[in-house]
């Protein structure tokens, strides 16, 4: 079994008297991606801040690399990488100079800068001022900086938010590669499709409560109580039917009459599970 690198144990957080996180429990092992999914204001960033020692929980314990996050010192930053909105990139420095600056602080070799620039596909752009990069390229530079020192744990707050689908796909490929190298990735998103594709485990967070936790497949199967089918007939009409005795007879008759063009089962998605459990859409 893979080594556990993060544990949230009964974490609650209040700002003044306002409860923002309520009794969160979750864990992340090396070589895995954990997705924290929830709409704006659900408490995702607050959870990252607690895990990285930037905020103290009101109750409960958070552990990172075996250390209680309330007792970590700055040496922990040698082992973690954090990517949030505030990119911390210097616009007037080139791509290379930006990484060189952080490499000095983190005592990372020049060879590693070359390696990471190739990995994120920015080697050709290394002499460009960071301020002239596209949004997707900037995001890749931020990611390059965060993984420069080969952290054991990487925190990503909405890594593909606002990116076009093909750039988002490139970021996904990079994250898979990093995960396969053994990095543990804690990812927040409100993109359920991204989560279903990327994450080994997901926590569905609503108003500070984890309403569902497991692998995306486990969660969808658990909510696949009423089986449904969509059909398109040769007349062009489409139907979504629940699996009842009456509908099975209807479908069998259409089959016998050879009037079915397409027939699919409709399994729940993380999006539909979230809607079912909370009555609200994610995005
Ligand atoms: N320092 C703070 N003081 C008071 N309230 C705060 C503070 N930080 C966050 N909050 C509140 O806590 C709640 C959760 O915020 P958080 O930033 O964790 O949400 P989020 O899920 O990351 O949202 P988003 O997807 O918009 O980034 C929000 O209602 C927010 O207003």
UniProtKB/TrEMBL annotation:
Keywords: ATP-binding, Nucleotide-binding, Transport
Keyword Nucleotide-binding tagged: yes
InterPro entries per record: AAA+_ATPase (IPR003593), ABC_transporter-like_ATP-bd (IPR003439), ABC_transporter_ATP-binding (IPR050763), P-loop_NTPase (IPR027417)
GO MF term (any one): ATP binding
SUPFAM superfamilies assigned to the protein according to its UniProt record, in alphabetical order: P-loop containing nucleoside triphosphate hydrolases
Residue ranges occupied by any ABC transporter domain in the UniProt entry: 6-232
Keyword Transport: yes
Protein name (database record): ABC transporter ATP-binding protein
Native organism: Anaerostipes butyraticus
